[in-house]
């Protein structure tokens, strides 16, 4: 074990500075009770390097997890003990992927809870059922059990009234931000639902033989479809449309890929939310320039 004596002999002899020669010796590690921490964290070697495959792999051996550790096994005269209060788990069969969860003990209610991302559920079975042989636990957290002779520390200074006021003000500001954020989420959710309904209406409604079409920059329509304007303002488009029109006041076919044809109703909608900017308005008939069409 970690505290077992280690014999140094043979090629592993200890070099003695006094004797100026190598000598047989015994080395061991001692732990003083005064150095025992209030919280003890044990890391299980679940992930190791496989020299055969040159990859990291997960050790899935079942490990019995004690609910309480008595330090008497390491320090015969010690009466210090630790109680399990937390366990981090890794679900998965490989070291490169998986899911992390945590079992946490709540002292005030003497109950265990399972933390799984944002989901927190009470553990309705006794701890012994999931501590007996765990293949997922990789870190254990133990808390030192207080003893009657342990004196609580009384030298901790109380915060000054100024600091208390600062903390209270910070908490109040945080609560305001949380409330404002929740309201903003509701507004954005409603705005996204409205935009989705408008998108479905305009995309599914044929243009028909309208008197005129509006040709706009494709990036403007894309920004509207993606909802880039929802929640913040979008700068007006400054691109000129004269480059898309030939001298005969018709649309140049070689520039058509940069434009999208929309109805007048959708164009007004774009102007009101994403500032569509200049557009090319052409008749529904003969809007292609045949001269440029032949040149292309």
From TrEMBL:
GO terms under biological process: protein deubiquitination; proteolysis
InterPro entries assigned to the protein according to its UniProt record, in alphabetical order: Papain-like_cys_pep_sf, Peptidase_C19, Peptidase_C19_UCH, USP, USP_CS
Compartment(s) where it occurs, according to its Swiss-Prot or TrEMBL record: Nucleus
Cellular component, GO annotation: cytosol; nucleus
Record's keyword terms, sorted: Hydrolase, Nucleus, Protease, Thiol protease, Ubl conjugation pathway
Protein name: ubiquitinyl hydrolase 1
Organism name: Aphanomyces astaci
GO molecular function, one term: cysteine-type deubiquitinase activity
Catalytic activity annotation: Thiol-dependent hydrolysis of ester, thioester, amide, peptide and isopeptide bonds formed by the C-terminal Gly of ubiquitin (a 76-residue protein attached to proteins as an intracellular targeting signal)
All residue ranges annotated as the USP domain in the record: 1-145
Main location: nucleus
The family this protein is said to belong to: Belongs to the peptidase C19 family.
EC code: 3.4.19.12
């Amino acid at each position: 074990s970690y505290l077992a004596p280690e014999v140094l002999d043979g090629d592993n002899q200890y070099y003695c500075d006094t004797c100026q020669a190598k000598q047989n010796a015994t080395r061991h590690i001692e732990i003083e009770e005064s150095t025992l921490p209030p919280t003890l964290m044990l890391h299980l070697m679940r992930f190791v390097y496989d020299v055969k495959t040159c990859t990291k792999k997960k050790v899935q051996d079942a490990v019995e997890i004690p609910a309480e550790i008595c330090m008497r096994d390491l320090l015969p005269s010690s009466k210090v003990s630790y109680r399990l209060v937390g366990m981090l788990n890794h679900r998965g069969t490989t070291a490169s992927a998986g899911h992390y969860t945590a079992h946490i003990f709540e002292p005030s209610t003497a109950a265990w809870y399972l933390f799984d991302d944002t989901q927190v559920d009470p553990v309705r079975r006794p701890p012994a059922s999931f501590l007996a042989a765990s293949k997922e636990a990789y870190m254990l957290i133990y808390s030192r059990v207080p003893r009657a002779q342990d004196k609580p520390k009384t030298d901790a200074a109380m915060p000054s009234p100024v600091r208390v006021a600062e903390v209270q003000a910070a908490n109040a500001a945080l609560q305001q931000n949380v409330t404002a954020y929740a309201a903003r989420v509701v507004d954005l959710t409603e705005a996204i639902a409205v935009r989705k309904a408008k998108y479905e209406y305009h995309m599914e409604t044929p243009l028909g033989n309208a008197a005129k079409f509006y040709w706009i920059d494709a990036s403007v329509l894309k920004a509207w479809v993606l909802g880039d304007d929802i929640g913040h303002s979008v700068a007006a488009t400054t691109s000129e449309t004269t480059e898309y029109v030939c001298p005969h006041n018709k649309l140049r076919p070689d520039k058509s890929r940069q434009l999208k044809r929309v109805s007048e109703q959708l164009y007004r909608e774009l102007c009101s939310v994403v500032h569509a900017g200049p557009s090319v308005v052409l008749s529904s008939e003969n809007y292609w320039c045949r001269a440029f069409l032949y040149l292309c």
